[in-house]
Design goal:
about 750 residues; alpha/beta; Catalase HpII,  Chain A, domain 1; Hemocyanin, N-terminal domain; Rossmann fold; 3 domains; 10-stranded antiparallel sheet; 19 helices; about 15% strand; oxidoreductase; heme binding
């Protein structure tokens, strides 16, 4: 290379938006770019020289998987271990010896097995899967996943709570993380979002303050995985921009039924950029095909005690059973000119773009079809970063997004032991990785040659910058967004409007959903010990809905205060005052009872044939049926005459280890002897009452009605579509009606506040 021919092309606007490809020269011999002239004579350890232009560290996870079949124990150095039971000692009763390198290695590694947990989103569950594009979106973006119809992109998705620590419970009231790592053929793209489309704050400057306020209070470390405490409500009541997010978290969205039954959102406004350099704005929406459903608060609290891993177990078991969760990806695509006309600012992460203004266009589907092999190696070590984008995806000027672009990468350096976290197998790209970054903790790649800089001639100019236009894929070029503004600290004027979309959300909910929001605020604020904080929060809620504020105040035994002064007294009128898409009632999914957990109570003397026919109908519909007895094991069945038939039913769960609130519906069996035994036992009564209180579907067969009578529920039959009764002979006939009732998830007409005894 007589000189650097591209140097003159580093200058000027045209070259800035269309940078040239780097100059390369093919060396006359591969030895010219080698690390050593002795790379050819290899050993069993060194192997041969690196294949030119390759990076073997980015291959599929197969190369990193380990199986011990027919293999002896060894140390980390590969030395076989003869005795894994005893420390080396000076005599059988003598002192342990310092020279026991096997013990020392084993204990030392054990002492360092744990890594720092994530600051937020510490508790999560994940799965592998793929994304399938419905059609090419090349008119909007050159992003690899949308390049052609039917294109398949492998991915890894992780769901999480935000506030709790790694060992906290799944069913806390909280936002949920929804992060997807696309392993595209042009690099990794991480879409890191939540199950709620907005956030608490508008600017990343406030993120440490928010998290410090939300986390357990530092003087006593309580409460864990909960926002119902003074510091959180002190902060958000002084930050009225949080009000919209509070409405979502206090709603049923804050306690989903399952990770498989919650929406996901990219939260921020992103850019899509096509091959011609044209840009539009975009918001990302994930919608579960199984529908969007939630828990009620009493149910969530009880589940957290009986099974704190409720959501983790649900996701794992569904995938293991072949019931692969599926979400549809939808995009809201709009121009900058459209965005400027809205009454709100699309760079404000506390705002949505109502679907009435910009519809959601379905563009593909995500299917999760494989559980991880190892929780730590994959789920715990996966590193999601909003900075990970591919050509065709770019950022807007959202100030919260700007902070996340830095923060996520920065936190992984501490958590995963250095800047090479991208070389951990779960994080590696499937696209070629070649750069001049070297060294650092835990470096895996062994780079060939002596060059680690660019430009260079000693490696033939490689690796070279991709440029914006060349044969083959071009490099990432940021969208040339113009900015002629002063350098200032501040917010745009439209950011000052904090309540219109909170009101929109509340007004878009059904009466039952609104009642749950009231109950959510009432519970949380009742945990606040400083009356002034309660009053301040109530004054903010007056600006959302006087009715909401009055009902919350009544539950706290307080008078409704005057409305909090608004940061913007005369905002632009909102374009939309009610949006049905914001209610979970509008998101039933495909319906049906696939993966729904059905409890069938059993005791000695149950009518066998009716339960067998019902079990067959439910499992054929995709439900998961559990026979639940006072203990696990076998229970004798009877026929129509009440005589034992010799047939038995095996209870796979007991009322002791699987209380009623863990199930989606209940079947009470026929059989006079069995029902009387159940009536005489307190556990079945609690089982039935929890199912009723949580508005679940209950079917009583024959004599099973007596259990409903003793629980005071029989009077609801006929008026309540979720209370069904049938004779044993009609079990098969009632099955379709029961299935339809279970598919409704919950019968909210039964709900009263406060609940009945």
């Amino acid at each position: 290379m007589p000189h650097n021919r591209t140097k003159a092309l580093e200058h000027g606007h045209d070259n800035a938006v269309a940078p040239p490809a780097g100059e390369t020269v093919k060396p006359g011999s591969s030895e010219l770019t080698a690390s050593t002239t002795t790379e050819e004579p290899g050993t069993a350890k060194t192997g041969g020289p690196a294949q030119l232009g390759t990076n073997e560290t980015i291959a599929p996870l197969d190369q990193f998987k380990v199986d011990p079949s027919d293999q002896p124990l060894t140390t980390n150095q590969g030395v076989r271990i003869a005795d894994n039971q005893n420390t080396l000692k000076a005599g059988l009763r003598g002192p342990s010896l310092l020279e026991d390198f096997i013990l020392r290695e084993k204990i030392t590694h054990f002492d360092h097995e744990r890594i720092p947990e994530r600051i937020v989103h510490a508790r999560g569950s994940a799965a592998h899967g793929y994304f399938e594009a419905y059609d090419a979106l090349t008119q909007y973006t050159r992003a690899a996943p949308f390049a052609e119809k039917g294109k398949i992109t492998p991915l890894f998705a992780r769901f999480s709570t935000v506030a709790g620590e790694r060992g906290s419970k799944d069913t806390a009231r909280d936002a949920r993380g929804f992060a997807v790592k696309f392993y595209t053929d042009e690099g990794n793209w991480d879409l890191v979002g939540n199950n709620i489309p907005v956030f608490f704050i508008q600017d990343a400057m406030k993120f440490p303050d928010l998290v410090h306020a939300l986390k357990p209070e530092p003087h006593h470390g309580m409460p864990q995985a909960a926002s119902a405490h003074d510091t959180f409500w002190d902060f958000v009541s002084l930050m009225p921009e949080s009000t919209h997010m509070l409405m979502w978290v206090m709603s049923d969205r804050g306690i989903p039924r399952s990770y498989r039954m919650m929406q996901g959102f990219g939260v921020h406004t992103f850019r899509l950029v096509n091959e011609q350099g044209e840009s539009v704005f975009c918001k990302f929406h994930w919608t579960p095909l199984q529908g969007t459903y939630s828990l009620v608060w009493d149910e969530a609290v009880k589940i957290s005690g009986a099974d704190p891993d409720f959501h983790r177990r649900d996701l794992w078991e569904a995938i293991e059973a072949g019931e692969f969760p599926e979400w549809e990806l939808g995009l809201q695509i709009f121009t900058e000119e459209q965005a400027e006309s809205f009454s709100f600012d699309v760079l404000d992460s506390t705002k949505i773009v109502p679907e009435e203004l910009v519809p959601v266009t379905p563009v593909g589907r995500m299917v999760l079809n494989r559980n991880p092999d190892n929780f730590f190696a994959e789920t715990e070590q996966v590193a999601f970063c909003t900075a990970h984008v591919v050509p065709g995806i770019d950022f807007s000027n959202d100030p919260l997004l700007a902070g996340r672009i830095h923060s996520y990468s920065d936190t992984q350096i501490t958590r995963l032991g250095g800047p090479n976290f991208h070389e951990i197998p779960i994080n590696t790209s499937l696209a070629p990785v070649q750069n001049n970054q070297r060294d650092g903790l835990h470096r895996q790649a062994v780079h060939r040659g002596r060059v680690a800089y660019e430009p260079n001639s000693l490696a033939g100019g490689c690796p070279f910058q991709g440029g914006a236009s060349q044969t083959g894929p071009s490099g990432f070029v940021s969208f040339p967004d113009t900015n002629a503004e002063d350098k200032v600290r501040g917010k745009p004027e439209k950011f000052a409007e904090h309540y219109a979309q909170a009101t929109l959300f509340f007004n878009s909910q059904s009466a039952v959903e609104q009642a749950h929001i009231v109950a959510g605020f009432r519970f949380e604020l009742s945990k606040v010990g400083v009356p002034a904080i309660r009053e301040r929060m109530l004054s903010s809620l007056v600006n959302v809905s006087p009715d909401l504020a009055a009902k919350v105040a009544d539950g706290l035994g307080m008078a409704v205060p005057a409305a909090m002064p608004k940061a913007m007294e005369n905002p632009e009128p909102a374009e939309v005052n009610q949006s049905p898409a914001l209610s979970m009632m509008s998101l039933p999914g495909e319906g049906g009872v696939r993966t729904r957990q059905i409890a069938v109570l059993v005791e000695d003397g149950v009518h066998y044939a009716s339960l067998a026919s019902l079990h067959s109908a439910l499992t054929n519909a995709g439900a998961v049926v559990h026979f639940v007895g006072p203990k696990v094991g076998l229970f004798a069945g009877v026929g129509d005459s009440g005589d034992k038939t010799g047939e038995e039913i095996e209870a796979d769960k007991s009322m002791e280890n699987a209380p009623g609130f863990l199930f989606d519906a209940l079947v009470i069996p026929d059989g006079s002897e069995a029902v009387q035994t159940l009536v005489d036992n307190g556990d079945p009564m609690e089982f039935v009452k929890d199912q009723f209180k949580h508005c679940k579907t209950i079917l009583a067969l024959g004599a099973g009605r007596k259990l409903l009578e003793m629980a005071g529920i029989d009077s609801a039959a006929g008026q309540d579509p979720g209370i069904l009764m049938a004779d044993s002979a009609d079990a098969a006939g009632i099955a379709p009606t029961f299935i339809d009732a279970v598919a409704a998830h919950r019968h909210s007409s039964r709900e009263i506040d406060p609940p009945a005894k």
